[in-house]
Amino acid sequence: xTIPMVGVDGVRQTVNADLSTAQTVWNLRSALNxxxxxxxxxEHGALLPNYTAFLDRYASKLSSTxxxxxxxxxxxxxxxxxxxxxxxxxxxxxxFALPPAQENFCDVALAVSSEALAPEVTDLELFAAQAxxxxxxxxxxxxxxxxxxxxxxxxxxxxxxPSRSEVRTTxxxxxxxxxxxxxxxxxSSADRSSAGGSPAQGELMIDLSGTTGQESTAIEATPVPxxxxxxxxxxxxxxxxxxxxxxxxxxxGSNYATERNGEIAGxx
Length: 268
Known about the structure:
This protein is mainly α. The chain is 48% helix and 4% strand.
């Protein structure tokens, strides 16, 4: 898992670092959008109506904010600004949907969504400047904890981990002459020699001591008849990023996500 780095200024370089005033407001709106869609427990049931009310109350301000954002991206990236902006906003949605931080994120998003509707809140920009860092802290809590876990794991491995890895690789033949293999923990040739054994016929013994600088480790290759070969398990799926594109966040007929339509979408 890639954890955002902390910059020389001590600020973690996430999607919420070094934002303009307009982007701060828009990222707060995005955070509440993700929360309204992802925080589905009963205790967070008020998030969706709160977000709907938030859009209604601040419709004019959100429209002007979006126009300001378009101008900022166009000024910095030129004619291709829209692709850059869309890519960035996808990262923003993915960021707020990070699974390990969801429980705390939902809690703080619920509180923020209620506070945003308070009568005394009249300046959305000022409110966003205070509210977005509160949401960001929940992700910082996870990032810091994960970094500490990796540090602790490395220390544990250094003290208690195995000094060397011993692998037995068995190659299976099949009628088509294609060779497949399966690896498992096994004993070294030195272990078998001490027990009076020797490599069986057809075993491939490879000495890895020259590359590791450690005691010799054996890799055994034992051919077996094709009829005895066990089916090889399918490869494990690779975990990809969380994909929450705008299309997903704005299902047709919804009354709370209007990223690319109408005034809030900033249509030109």
